[in-house]
């Protein structure tokens, strides 16, 4: 399972969106 990876990916995407 890569639940943490998915969360990290979402966080990175959010930071890029900033």
Please give a handful of descriptors for the protein shown.
18 residues, mainly alpha, 1 helix, rod-shaped
Write up this protein.
The protein is mostly helical. The protein has one helix at 3-17. The longest helix is centred in the middle third of the chain and has 15 residues, at 3-17. The mean pLDDT is 87.
List the topology elements:
Blueprint: H1 3-17
List the total number of helices: 1
Low-confidence stretches: none
Q: Give the N-to-C terminal Cα separation.
A: 28 Å
Q: pLDDT average, as an integer? A: 87
Question: Main sheet, how many strands, which sense, barrel?
Answer: none
Radius of gyration over all CA atoms, rounded: 8 Å
Order of helices and strands: H
What overall form do the CA principal axes indicate? rod-shaped
**Strand pairing plus helix content: what structural class?**
mainly alpha
Strand content: under 5%
Q: What is the count of β-strands?
A: 0
Assembly context of the chains: single chain
Query: What is the helical fraction, as a range of percent?
Result: over 70%
């Amino acid at each position: 399972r890569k639940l943490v990876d998915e969360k990290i990916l979402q966080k990175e995407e959010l930071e890029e969106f900033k």
